[in-house]
Design a protein that fits this description.
Elements: H1 2-5, H2 10-18, H3 24-37, H4 41-44, E1 45-48, H5 50-66, E2 77-81, H6 108-115, E3 119-124, E4 144-145, E5 148-152, H7 158-165, E6 171-176, H8 182-187, E7 191-194, E8 214-219, H9 222-233, E9 249-253, H10 263-278, E10 282-286, H11 289-296, H12 298-316, H13 323-330, H14 337-358, E11 363-367, H15 376-381, H16 383-393, H17 395-402, E12 406-411, E13 418-423, H18 428-442
Parallel strand pairs: 2-3, 2-6, 9-10, 9-11
Antiparallel strand pairs: 1-3, 4-5, 6-8, 7-8, 7-12, 11-13, 12-13
Helix pairs in contact: 3-5, 6-9, 9-18, 11-14, 12-13, 12-14
Pfam family, one: Amidase
Domain Amidase: 28-432
InterPro entries: Amidase, Amidase_CS, Amidase_dom, AS_sf
Length: 443
């Protein structure tokens, strides 16, 4: 029975605990053993936390026996991207620059999740300092895509996604600055939720770009995403009962978002749109020129802030970094403070345009990424390929970050091809209801 647990949704595992069919301690051992013995485990987990996991699982067992469970996911094991602080356990953000960094307290979201009964399995690998959508990291480890062992898993929450996809965690918590939850979720056929900036507290999380950094779950179902979000903020999960697409209004974003799609991505997206429409959604196609203008601001808004935050640490020991990530950070030095301020002033105006153009729709839909997972060896040997694939990987997801939106990616049924739903800021619960209905239509 324990083998079956490794492929179940987090919510179904939680129901099993609540019904007395699953012992949280046995469940934790099943995932710890799977992670420790799986041949890809060292490429997925930076480090396991077995002592913590067992203690948390035993406490969950006692609560379950006493009828005092704290929520559906009380006793369910999750993994955490290795940029969330864990008290007494190294948090190194995939970089040799932070080797040996051991925080004294948990990140706020981990502390809240622990109070909610979550079991922390360990910390997962990621792109160096979270600054790439590919998931390629020669400094620590490069997790493989579940659909192609020679390909990268997507970044920067690469290990977070693969820990779930390979059955080494029931769900995972990652971060998303330009697509870092949604890309690895899509490439590994998972659900990924990007929350709005400020929805969840970032204290105790290694920052990349504070004006864009967000936290979100990677998991097997929309229900799991709703439950993990509630676990992270200590609130109530979105009510998904009765969710329907009947009469839902979707804007299919043309503009640049549909350019240069790989055939499999286009096929998956087309199928998804057809199924959404068959389920009762009304789909309208339109361009929003503000999207192209916003994407042009990406270098100054992302790179300038990232380099500003990390410049002193990086330049003290630049030889410790993967050269292509180092180069990307240093690109931020090309912009002045005036460029950065002017860029944000322009972006504020473009956000108003987006709001006006999309006000009549429940969500904007587009392919999560225009490409499929690139092959790791070629990324290391072919610089032009690396640059092209890295920029394309995050192109569509970055739209959600630039415009300050909430976003959800769902599998389309075509391997590694996701469909993304963009909704207004702080609309996560409404987005999850749409996602639950869309998930049924797509499967």
């Amino acid at each position: 029975m324990t083998a079956a647990w490794l492929k179940m949704t987090a919510s179904d595992l939680g129901r099993g605990i609540g019904e007395g069919r699953i012992d949280p301690a046995d469940l934790a051992e099943a995932f710890l053993d799977a992670a420790a013995t799986h041949p890809l485990g060292p490429r997925i987990y930076a480090r396991l936390t077995p002592g913590r996991a067992r203690a948390e699982a035993l406490a969950a067992r006692e609560r379950a026996r006493a009828g005092l469970r704290r929520g559906l996911l009380d006793g369910v094991p999750l993994s955490w991207k290795d940029l969330f602080d864990t008290a007494g356990v190294a948090t190194e953000a995939g970089s040799a620059l932070l080797r040996g960094r051991v925080p004294e307290r948990d990140a706020d979201v981990l502390a809240t999740a622990t109070l909610g009964g979550s079991v922390c399995l360990g910390k997962t690998h990621l792109s160096e300092l979270a600054f790439s959508g590919l998931g390629l990291n020669p400094v620590t480890a490069t997790p493989p895509c579940v659909n192609d062992a020679d390909a990268v898993a997507g970044g920067s929450s690469s290990g977070a996604a693969t820990s779930v996809a390979f059955g080494l965690a029931a769900g995972s918590v990652g971060s998303d600055t330009g697509g870092s939850v949604r890309i690895p979720a899509a490439w590994n056929d998972l659900v990924g939720l990007k929350t709005t900036v400020g929805r969840l507290p970032m204290r105790g999380t290694v920052a990349l770009c504070e004006r864009f950094d967000t936290i979100g779950p990677l998991c097997r179902s929309v229900e799991d995403a709703a439950q993990i979000l509630a676990l992270l903020d200590g609130g109530q999960p979105a009510d998904l009962r009765g969710a329907s697409l009947e009469g839902a209004r979707f804007l299919l974003l043309r503009s640049v978002a549909m350019d240069d799609l790989r055939p499999a991505v286009e096929d998956g997206f087309t199928r998804a749109v057809d199924r959404l429409a068959a389920a009762g959604a009304r789909v309208t196609e339109a361009e929003i020129p503000a999207v192209t203008e916003a994407l042009a601001l990406s270098p100054v808004l992302f790179s300038a802030e990232a380099y500003g935050l990390w410049r002193d640490v990086i330049e003290a020991q630049p030889d410790l970094m993967f050269p292509r990530i180092l180069e990307r950070f240093r690109g931020g030095a090309e912009f002045s403070g005036a460029d950065y301020v002017a860029g944000w002033k322009t972006m504020a105006g473009l956000r108003e345009v987006w709001g006006a153009e999309t006000a009549g729709y429940d969500a904007v839909i587009l392919p999560t990424s225009p490409i499929l997972p690139p092959h790791a060896d070629r990324l290391l040997s072919d610089q032009d390929y690396y640059v092209r694939e890295n920029l394309l990987a995050l192109r569509n997801t970055r739209i959600g970050n630039l415009f300050g939106l909430s976003a959800l990616t769902l599998p389309t049924g075509v391997p590694s091809a996701g469909v993304m739903f963009l909704a207004p800021p702080m609309a996560e619960e409404r987005l999850l209801r749409l996602g639950a209905a869309a998930e049924r239509a797509l499967t």
